[in-house]
Amino acid sequence: MHQSIESHNDHAANDACLASAVGTYREWRVNGPLSAHLACTWMHALPPSAALTLQVVPDGCIDIVWSGDSVRIAGPDTRPIFESFRPGAVITGVRFLPGAAPAWLGVPASEVVNARPPLQDLWGADAHRLTDRLRETRDPVDASGKIMSALLARTPTASLMDSAARAVLHVLARDDGGPVGISQLAAALDLSERTLRRRCESAFGYGPKTLARILRFQRFLRLLRRSREPRLAELAAASGYVDQAHLSRDVRRLGGLTPSEFKTLLAA
Length: 268
Hints:
The protein has about 270 residues and is an alpha+beta fold. It has helices at about 100-105, 120-125, 125-135, 140-150, 165-170, 180-190, 195-205, 210-225, 230-240, 245-255, 260-265; strands spanning about 1-10, 25-30, 40-45, 50-55, 65, 70-75, 80-85, 90-95.
């Protein structure tokens, strides 16, 4: 059911504990009936030396997260979120594709923006049963499998399944870095701008302009990770920013760090 697609070796952050720069993180592709809804499953093993506060940056997604103690919802975020974990914690998650989570969670994404509510707030007794099953395993792959089994046992909320969300994501997530006019996007989907915003808030947690900013920010981070000798001005242009100053403002707002600080942390 899983295929390994990414691995980052252990290394510690210095001043800023950016989540992706601490401990060991892995992702697995999802095959089977949930592959159209889930981006990946993942695990994050933290160093055993001390309790950590991790800085998590927006990625447009919503996750179900098992911390070893509780099951929570994570995101969608519009700013850096700081989370504390015990030393040596192994965190397991199931990440939805942008726009896919509301039907499975049973609430619009706008209700969990920048929040980390317990899953039981949304699933009730089903979340209690899932927590009991998760406590029976220490294997992160098995844990993510149990979360997916719980998802498959549920019936998605039809009123929260929006075909327009996938079309919006397809346009805004394109890799050419070109600007997207919201009025043109609304017209292409035969929607008013107000209706487009309302449906985006339900599916993604925020309007199309914020979604576009977050996807552009993530495009910058992807390019930064892939570049051997990254030049920020070039990455700004390739990511779709007007110039390096635009990059700096947006990255600082969304990520809580400057582009140079991300460059240093991701190169460590």
